[in-house]
Amino acid sequence: MGEVRAHFQRLAAQPPFHTTAAGSWRGLVELAISYSAYTFRPGREVKREEAEALVAWFVCFWKLDDLVDADRKSMPAHYLPELRRILARAWWGEETSPHGLSPQEEDLFNFPSQAAALLLSHRRQLHALGHPLENHPRYQRAVWEHILNQTGDVPRVDSLGEYFGVRRIRGGMECVFHMFLALQGVEWRDEFERVVDVANVVTCMTDDLFSAPRDAREGVVGAVALCGPERALRAVTSLHQELLERLEGLLRFDSGLSTRLFVRTVLDVVLGMIDWQERNPRYREGARWLADVLCAGASSTAAEH
Questions:
Q1: Pick from 78, 91, 176, 202: most CB atoms within 10 A?
Q2: How many CB atoms sit inside 10 A of residue 289's CB?
Q3: Cβ count within 10 A of residue 98
């Protein structure tokens, strides 16, 4: 990953990234490198193009998430529609850098052209790997739905069921699963659809548990705020159980190479993400909080018996 780290360090010093504090980009790049190492484990050496594609994607969308979460209220009215237009051009248009950005696009946040450059870099690396975007319509559509959701109005949710519906898109994990499956060369089958949907929700909900203390402090309405820690934990546990049962069912029906690769890729993301969160300083407070919730639940169960 040293070569990839050096590549993004060089990018940070060049337009359009040079207007943002280098430390901000370095932190996101390191986070993306770490996350990729835990969750993308193809059983072979990761190619440089794969690593660059992954880091470009994660940096782009984590930056987008941070931006809309922190600065949405202070954004000019035109900002998010303009950002959406620029990202549409980068995601659906030709793999060429946009020129002649309007003054509205180069505003105080300096993000639209950076996001477009990262998305175009991601697409070029996929092309170099033999996985052009147009060959993976589910991935292409999932990313665009995430962009639309993040740059649109924030929906109100009043129940855990409504929250599931919103989180499965806003969380971005559907994009990650489809991206990793594409890089692994897994041939898509219809029976994979529900498995990816469950895996998407379970990873997002697990992230909610690890993020609960920070969300409470920042006023973010997540699963724990909606239904309390015990119910949220039960929901996540149930989702994990459903996922494992569905993966086992797939293998019972077909234990061929493609199915085994699909199952391994999904589990690498789900389990790797938990491992990453337990070890990452970003989630240290949440990991301690979650451990306390689990201990309290175990003590309550023991007392009942």
A1: 176
A2: 20
A3: 16
